[in-house]
Amino acid sequence: MPDTPRALAKEPGACRAREILDRVGDKWSLQVIARLGERPYRFSELRRGIEGISQRMLTVTLRGLERDGIVSRTVTPVTPPRVDYALTPLGLTLLTAVNSLVSWAEVHLDEIDASRADFDRRTAAL
Amino acid sequence: MPDTPRALAKEPGACRAREILDRVGDKWSLQVIARLGERPYRFSELRRGIEGISQRMLTVTLRGLERDGIVSRTVTPVTPPRVDYALTPLGLTLLTAVNSLVSWAEVHLDEIDASRADFDRRTAAL
DNA sequence: CTGTATCCGCTGCGATACTG
DNA sequence: CAGTATCGCAGCGGATACAG
């Protein structure tokens, strides 16, 4: 295995919400989920469709999502080998939840950019 | 400033959704937002309320959220100094979006745990 | 009380090379 | 085509010490 998928520090009572964000909040998971929300993809298709992702990180990301039952992995033993990835039913429900966050981002991006510019201007004046 | 808040690599057409996840997906932002969703808090109250956060990271996290216009910072110049943090209206709308993700996590945590256990058992059998 | 400055270890992740 | 193995570094974030 290239890397350990994730080191989850099982905090007792602490907010379990972190775990889901660890899953969805890393660098690539969201984009992978979004892609697979459209339709199933093969490995290379996915790689080409996601700008800038390395082979390694696509593998690691897919493994993590597969482990959590969010994507399914279907191997067709032909030559050359063919592997298809798709969202599971669980993955679909996650897609919905994630989309509300994405929508939020799209709606408020200008507002955030403005706020940042403001803040930076104010703190630059020291 | 202890650290630069975040290095945002302004990718041209690429998914802007990453930016919001960079904001909300880091180690502490979510918990801070959740807390402030209940009521305004003072710095030390927040620190005590969030298990395991260091002073440094609370400061860094709050600065980032303030910069994005998600939390407000109100200084009362008394001795000892008093600083109150609260969600802005923008922050409140984010809280709503984030909550749908948190709900999802709560609902599906068992399912995910089971899937992980399954996966780990299968891959352990090599 | 509310920060800020510095040091530093750990891990995410890209680059590269190799296998079935 | 679809991975896996290894190396290397940048940056997140913890510990600690200081300051207004």
TrEMBL record, chains A, B:
Residues 15-113 form the HTH hxlR-type domain. InterPro entries: HTH_HxlR, WH-like_DNA-bd_sf, WH_DNA-bd_sf. The keyword Electron transport does not apply. Gene3D superfamilies: Winged helix-like DNA-binding domain superfamily/Winged helix DNA-binding domain. GO terms for molecular function: DNA binding. It holds the Pfam family HxlR. Keywords: DNA-binding, Transcription, Transcription regulation. Signal peptide: none annotated. PANTHER family: TRANSCRIPTIONAL REGULATOR, MARR FAMILY, TRANSCRIPTIONAL REGULATORY PROTEIN. This is HTH-type transcriptional activator HxlR. It comes from Actinomadura macrotermitis. The gene is hxlR_2.
